[in-house]
């Protein structure tokens, strides 16, 4: 079938090739067996299969949303009730398990650290579609890390939504490495007063990978803050669409928002499209966005190579330096090593 | 702290309504007979009628845009596409009928011509009523005339360029334009000729429930240079008027063209205009645009940098007040190596007005060594208005330097405090900040071209602030 995913919140001219991502000949799996290869690491968080039905504000389109809500072969409700609770969930794709449709609801209390990792131990083309919803309580401080390390033959769709209460502080980190097509949709509803949502993303596109990134933040409460920082690298014939929206709603007095996307191009065949949107119906706000793209800084490259490194090694070093600020947010050292190893391998 | 309040533009000059005293007004609507009738009345050659009819077919096929402002109030069945005023083309103001001449005098056009212009064209409804150019330019081979004359007297040049830069299938309103176009200016600047003073065309739409579809075709040959200014206005009526003009600019190798527009249509106008420039090797086109009027605007001038080393700059300001939805911006396509573009956009929204900056930067695979820098700032003067920034940046090669930055916000309290601590009143401080905000655009305007845009900005800022 043919589907359109990741629609922008506001349409623009069709000729600009950014309103959505059209996918042809895609099979949406159903009647799935439960996905078994899940590792859940937690101390006392409550994990159950009771996930409430919920209509996404944006998401990856009706077909994929319905698939995740009705056909999921992994349904998890994560509830933290102690300060500082940590939860790590690792899904591993294998030759036997190539399809994962997961529906996750996270309800946090006080401080929480949630990490969801998608790994691949197979060369087979896999399918992954998920919905992750985060409901916070006032004053929560929540870190969420999502790591996609699928192989480059797979389809990866992820829809994430957050709802932020008064004084909630959410740090969301997305490491987007895998997938032949990776379409990620993220929506933060920053409702509560002085709530802060800080999203940081790394993406790496190689071969013919397509990255379609659609991040939206609604700033509604007074003195809310919304940040989107995306750092990416494209090599070979990889293609990336970045769509970022900061939407300052009427009444969000004193709100601040910053949106930044940087794309390093390592190949003349790589393609980068960016649509950083600012929408505003409140005057008492500060909103900024910036995007930039270009090749590796030749001076840095020359300097590093003059110290004896090959061009490839030098590029890896420069990429890692650019990614480091975001990678610092991954506190699990083993996972961090895995991610760095994966980036190096892919480069 | 009190909010800044800036009055609406004082539109007294623009809103003077002349009697709808036409020689001929086409029946409302759009069909083959109407298109044929326009062509017949203009005594056009068959090739032009063919273009019109193909465009009509295309218009019927194409959809309305699925994005941007609401166009539901626009009903083509209620628009007269052609209105011939009671005047023929003249090259002396004395011969222009009194009423029409008075209108242009109120707008300051003849005075500007005397003071600072090398040539003037004035269109009233669907026809150009006045056109003149200084003798020394004629002696150098410069052509500046209305489009109808150009079709008759320079058919080969027009045929080669008309609707080639902007193809008729570009979008629905381009097709509409090509089907019913009337009036507009034709400029040809021969190789190596540099015009020191600008040419100006002014478009006035007086007739209610009608459309203006003027076509501007400018060819600046190799090594030549030109500054062209267009101004537009209309009095306000209760029903919708339509402006769907088309501007095609050909800037050949090493040539330079500066295209300045002061748009001050009335607030019942749907301004769905299309402007595009093809830019040759080491040539440059600069756009300076002030959008103040109209109910709805969808206007995105476009530069296509086809020659190596071609350059373009866009400097624009949009000011939306009550009831206005102004969707404006800029498009640039880098199609050749070492091309460069600089975009500087400012917008101000107030009294419930909506400003949208919508843009495209495309750097094609072959455009190695290209550079693009975009800066976009929006100022919200109250909490009931709207300001959106929707830029698309499409980079298809690695060897580029591309950066885009945008800001949105209100007048900074810190800046007001600083200026007040230096002795300014709060009102003066705010006015100074808004002037400073608009300065990057206003400084690009020719000093001698004081007729419209500078006045407009001054009127805006001298409104009651405080």
Short description:
The complex is a heterodimer of chains A (347) and B (466). Chain A has 347 residues and is mostly beta strands.
Task: Explain what this protein looks like in three dimensions.
The complex is a heterodimer of chains A (347) and B (466). Chain A has 347 residues and is mostly beta strands. Chain A has one domain. Chain A contains four helices and 20 strands. In chain A, the strands form three sheets. Chain A has a nine-stranded mixed sheet, with helices on one face. Chain A has a nine-stranded mixed sheet with strand order 4-5-7-9-11-13-15-17-19, with helices on one face. In chain A, helix 2 crosses helix 3. In chain A, 50% of the residues are buried. With 466 residues, chain B is α/β, with parallel strands linked by helices. Chain B has one domain. Chain B is built from eleven helices and 25 strands. In chain B, the strands form three sheets. In chain B, strands 5, 6, 8, 9, 11, 12, 14, 15, 17, 18, 20, 22 and 24 form a 13-stranded mixed sheet that branches. Chain B has a ten-stranded mixed sheet with strand order 4-3-7-10-13-16-19-21-23-25. In chain B, helix 1 runs antiparallel to helix 2 and helix 2 packs antiparallel against helix 8. The radius of gyration of chain B is 22 Å and the shape is globular. Strand 19 of chain A pairs antiparallel with strand 24 of chain B.
Q: What gap, in angstroms, lies between the N and C termini of chain B?
A: 9 Å
Q: What is the ordering of alpha helices and beta strands of chain A?
A: EEEEHEEEEEEEEEEEEEEEEHHH
In DSSP terms (H or I, runs of 4 or more residues), the helix count of chain B works out at 11
The computed structural class of chain A is: mainly beta
For the CA atoms, what is the radius of gyration of chain A? 19 Å
- Enumerate the strands of the largest sheet of chain A in spatial order, edge to edge or round the barrel: 3-6-8-10-12-14-16-18-20
Which regions of chain A are unreliable across 5 or more consecutive residues at pLDDT < 50?
none
Number of domains of chain B: 1
**Sheet having the most strands of chain A:** 9 strands, mixed
Characterize the quaternary organization of these chains. heterodimer
Number of strands of chain B: 25
Number of strands of chain A: 20
What amount of the residues of chain A lies in strands? over 45%
Helix share bin of chain A: 10-25%
By secondary-structure content and strand pairing, the structural class of chain B works out as: alpha/beta
- Taking all Cα atoms into account, the compactness measure Rg of chain B is 22 Å
Strand content of chain B: 35-45%
Cα distance, first to last residue of chain A? 33 Å
Estimate the mean pLDDT confidence of chain A.
95
Shape of chain A: globular
């Amino acid at each position: 079938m043919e589907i359109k995913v990741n629609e922008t919140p506001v349409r623009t001219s069709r000729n600009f090739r950014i309103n959505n991502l059209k996918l042809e000949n895609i099979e949406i799996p159903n009647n799935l067996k439960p996905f078994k290869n899940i590792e859940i690491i937690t101390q006392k968080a409550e994990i159950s299969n009771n996930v409430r039905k919920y209509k996404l504000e944006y998401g990856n389109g009706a077909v994929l949303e319905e698939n995740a809500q009705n056909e999921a072969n992994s349904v998890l409700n994560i509830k933290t009730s102690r300060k500082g609770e940590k939860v790590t969930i690792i899904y591993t794709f294998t030759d036997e398990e190539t399809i994962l449709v997961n529906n996750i609801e996270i309800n946090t209390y006080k401080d929480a650290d949630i990490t969801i990792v998608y790994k691949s131990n197979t060369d087979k083309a896999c399918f992954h579609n998920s919905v992750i919803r985060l409901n916070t309580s006032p004053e929560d401080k929540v870190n969420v890390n999502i790591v996609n390390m699928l192989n480059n033959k797979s389809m990866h769709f992820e829809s994430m939504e957050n709802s932020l209460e008064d004084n909630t502080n959410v740090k969301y980190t997305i490491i987007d490495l895998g997938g032949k097509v990776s379409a990620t949709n993220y929506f933060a509803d920053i409702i509560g007063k002085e709530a802060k949502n800080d999203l940081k993303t790394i993406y790496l596109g190689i071969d013919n990978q397509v990255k379609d990134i659609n991040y939206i933040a609604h700033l509604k409460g007074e003195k809310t803050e919304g940040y989107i920082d995306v750092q990416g690298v494209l090599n070979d014939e990889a293609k990336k669409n970045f769509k970022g929206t900061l939407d300052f709603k009427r009444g969000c007095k004193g709100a601040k928002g910053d949106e930044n996307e940087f794309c390093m191009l390592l190949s003349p065949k790589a393609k980068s499209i960016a649509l950083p949107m600012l929408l505003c119906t409140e005057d008492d706000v500060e909103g900024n966005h910036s995007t930039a793209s270009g090749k590796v800084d030749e001076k840095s490259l020359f300097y590093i190579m003059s110290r004896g490194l090959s061009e490839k090694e030098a590029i890896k070093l420069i990429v890692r330096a650019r990614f480091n600020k975001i990678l610092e947010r991954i506190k699990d050292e083993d996972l961090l090593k895995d991610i760095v190893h994966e980036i190096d391998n892919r480069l | 702290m009190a909010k800044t309040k800036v009055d609406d533009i004082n539109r007294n000059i623009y809103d003077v309504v002349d009697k709808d005293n036409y020689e001929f007004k086409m029946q409302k609507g759009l069909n083959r007979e109407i298109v044929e009738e326009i062509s017949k009345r203009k005594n056009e050659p068959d090739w032009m009628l063919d273009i019109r009819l193909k465009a009509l077919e295309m218009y019927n096929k194409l959809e309305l845009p699925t994005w941007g402002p609401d166009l539901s109030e626009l009903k083509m069945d209620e628009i007269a596409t052609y209105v011939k005023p009671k005047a023929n083309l003249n090259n002396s103001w004395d011969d222009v009928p009194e009423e029409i001449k008075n209108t242009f005098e109120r707008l300051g056009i003849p005075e500007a011509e005397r003071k600072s212009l090398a040539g003037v064209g004035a269109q009233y409804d669907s026809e150009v009523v006045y056109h003149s150019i200084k003798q020394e330019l004629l002696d150098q081979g410069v052509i500046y005339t209305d489009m109808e004359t150009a079709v008759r007297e320079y058919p080969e040049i027009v045929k080669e360029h008309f609707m080639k830069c902007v193809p008729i299938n570009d979008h629905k309103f381009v097709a509409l334009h090509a089907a019913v176009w009337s009036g507009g200016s034709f400029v040809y600047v021969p190789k190596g000729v540099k015009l020191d003073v600008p040419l100006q065309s002014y478009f006035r739409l007086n007739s209610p429930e009608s459309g203006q579809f003027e076509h501007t075709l400018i060819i600046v040959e190799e090594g030549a240079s030109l500054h062209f200014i267009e101004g537009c206005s209309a009095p306000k009526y209760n029903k919708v008027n339509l402006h769907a003009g088309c501007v095609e600019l050909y800037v050949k190798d090493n040539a330079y063209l500066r295209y300045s527009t002061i748009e001050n249509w009335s607030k019942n106008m749907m301004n769905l205009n299309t402007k595009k420039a093809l830019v040759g090797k080491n040539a440059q086109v600069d756009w300076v645009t002030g959008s103040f009027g109209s109910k709805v605007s969808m206007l995105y001038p476009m530069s296509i940098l086809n020659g190596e080393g071609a350059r373009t700059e866009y400097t624009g300001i949009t000011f939306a007040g009550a009831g206005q939805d102004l969707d404006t911006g800029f498009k640039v396509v880098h199609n050749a190596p070492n091309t460069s573009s600089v975009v500087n956009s400012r917008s101000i929204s107030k009294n419930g007005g909506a400003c949208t900056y919508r843009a495209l930067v495309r750097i094609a695979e072959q455009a190695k060594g290209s550079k693009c820098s975009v800066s976009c700032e929006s100022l919200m003067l109250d909490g009931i208005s709207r300001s959106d920034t929707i830029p698309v940046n499409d980079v298809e090669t690695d060897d580029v330097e591309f950066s885009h930055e945008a800001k949105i916000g209100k007048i900074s309290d810190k800046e007001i405090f600083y200026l007040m601590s230096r002795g300014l009143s709060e009102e003066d401080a705010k006015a100074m900040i808004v002037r400073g905000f608009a300065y990057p655009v206003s400084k690009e305007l020719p000093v001698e071209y004081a007729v419209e845009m500078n006045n407009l900005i001054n009127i805006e800022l001298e409104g009651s602030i405080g």
